[in-house]
Design a protein that fits this description.
The structure is a single chain. Strands 1, 4, 5, 6, 7, 8, 9, 10, 11, 12, 13 and 14 form a 12-stranded mixed beta sheet that branches. Strands 2-3 form a two-stranded antiparallel sheet. It is 42% helix and 15% strand. Helix 10 packs antiparallel against helix 11. Strand 8 and strand 9 form a beta hairpin. It is found in: Cytoplasm.
């Protein structure tokens, strides 16, 4: 049975809208105004305040801005890391170089992609098949996952932003990405031709080295070449002069950062409520990575209540928390409010929006996926020690929310947060044991890998 949109049926729909006073009012209101702004509930906005009964001792300054790039995962990590670092160094303001990790991720990820293209060609995957086609669609996006950060920092370290500042392509990555995407597709064609001609490993290796030379040139022209060593000079809170270096970025991390924030002591927990993906099991996503021979992206799947409780415990202990979510739904962007009741869609459109499906079904039907990473810095707990709201440090500058900080309700957390990263000491042993499992491999296009494909 099919439905045809006949003139009679369309006239019926038109009459229903035109004869409904609420619909006529909504049409006028939405004529020159953002529909989401029209749906805002004034009372809900007035009831929102940035006062919390548990907060990390000192939030990082300044509020960062990733601008027109998909580097949220890098910003969120470095925002978490700088809080204990600033305390240890006795400084008020500091930024790690986001561009530094971004540069190495681009280079490593291009190498990972090209090696993966060789592997897939050798095992007979067709270029028109779903897997290769999916990977070629967006081979070098800006997004990333926690285990990718571990790969980068463990190998390349970190450095102050003053020693490797932003460039145009770091803040506006689209042009660079298009150049790299075009070259990676060109290189894939050449590599597949080599494999089909039974090219030996030495010839493939030689070809990959040449290709990566071109990639390195493109990336460093756009983002810059970091010095092998740097010297960082600064004044602490007492106005005393201090100097670190000359030192390599890896030495800087190992000697001055790792002692207060060891990235390898952190674990990633996700909540995926789809019936096919059981809690208490480990998962990974096929072809999702950024470093050849690097650490795999592993998801430890747990109920959302556990993620929320562990996050609250971490904040109570003074440690901020990196997390991944779907940022676009039930979010008053300018005001920085993440609350499932901040918009009243029913009154404006006559229908509910976003919550017609369960969290599991939104994943299944393509209506939800991780799109953004940020940092939890505060929480309010009720008399039963349950979280009611969270304070969120974003990386979109100071123009949104409370000078760059958002507020999130517990209901929003349950619906749209998918992932948190915590120190092992806040996670029970039975949950940590899940990381010892052989992970179930989800397909490359699974929504749980979406944060690493976000631009």
């Amino acid at each position: 049975m099919t439905l045809s949109l006949t003139e009679e049926l369309l006239s019926k729909y038109q009459s229903q809208v035109e004869n409904d006073p609420r619909s006529r009012l909504a049409i006028n209101a939405c004529w020159k105004t953002d529909p989401l702004e029209v749906c805002l509930q004034r009372q809900k906005v007035y009831q929102t305040n940035h006062v919390f009964n548990h907060k990390v001792e000192s939030e990082g300054r300044p509020v960062c801005n990733q601008k027109s790039s998909g580097r949220c995962w890098i910003f969120a990590c470095l925002n978490v890391m700088r809080i204990p670092f600033c305390k240890a160094m006795n400084i008020d303001e500091f930024e790690f170089s986001q561009a530094y990790l971004f540069m190495w991720d681009k280079i490593e990820r291009c190498n990972y992609f090209l090696n993966k293209m060789v592997e897939l060609a050798q095992r007979g995957e067709e270029v028109g098949g779903r897997l290769v086609s999916h990977l070629l669609h967006d081979p070098i996006s800006d997004g990333g996952q926690w285990d990718m950060l571990v790969n980068l920092i463990a190998r390349y370290g970190v450095m102050p932003k003053k020693c490797f500042p932003e460039s145009y392509s770091a803040e506006n990555s689209m042009r660079m990405n298009r150049i790299l995407t075009s070259k990676l597709r060109e290189f894939t064609n050449e590599l597949r031709a080599l494999v089909s001609k039974d090219g030996d490993d030495s010839l493939i290796q030689e070809t990959l080295e040449r290709m990566m030379g071109d990639v390195y040139r493109i990336v460093t022209i756009c983002l810059g070449v970091p010095s092998k060593t740097f010297t960082w000079e600064y004044y602490d809170k007492t106005k005393a002069y201090n100097k670190v270096g000359p030192i390599t970025p890896l030495e800087f991390y190992n000697q001055h950062v790792k002692t207060v924030y060891n990235i390898e002591d952190k674990v990633c927990l996700v909540t995926d409520p789809r019936p096919t993906n059981l809690y208490g099991h480990a998962y990974t996503v096929d072809c999702l990575g950024n470093m050849v021979g690097g650490r795999k992206t592993i998801y430890n799947n747990q109920p959302v209540e556990k993620l929320m409780n562990f996050t609250a415990e971490s904040i109570k202990a003074g440690e901020a928390v990196w997390f991944g979510c779907e940022v676009g739904k039930r979010f008053a962007g300018k005001l920085g409010i993440q609350d499932i009741s901040v918009h009243d869609f029913k009154s404006v459109f006559g229908v509910e929006v976003n919550l017609g499906l369960s969290k599991a079904n939104r994943l299944i039907y393509g209506d939800s996926l991780m799109t953004h990473a940020m940092t939890f810095t505060a929480v309010t707990l009720n008399d039963e020690n349950q979280a009611e709201k969270f304070r969120v440090e974003n990386s979109w500058g100071e123009d949104r929310g409370e000078k760059g900080y958002l507020i999130m309700t517990d209901e929003w957390f349950k619906e749209f947060v998918f992932e948190v990263v915590l120190d092992k000491k806040y996670v029970p042993e039975d949950i940590l044991a899940v990381f010892n499992q052989e992970p179930v491999v989800l397909p490359a296009w699974d929504p749980m890998g979406a944060l690493a494909k976000t631009v």
